Predict the structure.
Amino acid sequence: MIADLILSLFQRVDELERRLNQNSNNSSKPPSSDGYQKPNPKCLRGKSHKKSGGQPGHRAHWLEMSEHPNHVITHEVQACEKCQCNLSDVPVLSEDKRQVFDIIVTTP
């Protein structure tokens, strides 16, 4: 009697595990029933195995910064982002310069 109960419970567990392991790839279930899963990074489309960068021997070129830009905007830090301490009297440690090029395209 107890052996039959144990056997039926093992069979039930096997059936439930089999159902749990089913997805749209190995059953007739629709893909929407799979639920959310992180994609496998090894099989993502669009990823190239090629080394990034230009071809060897090709000289890079880019737009040079203008010596006399039309507009200059200075972004000064007033307070610390974390503790909100006043930073207006603190000396500048580093500076970044960036330039935006507006390219006007006219269509005939």
Remarks:
- The mean pLDDT is 83.
- The longest helix spans residues 2-20.
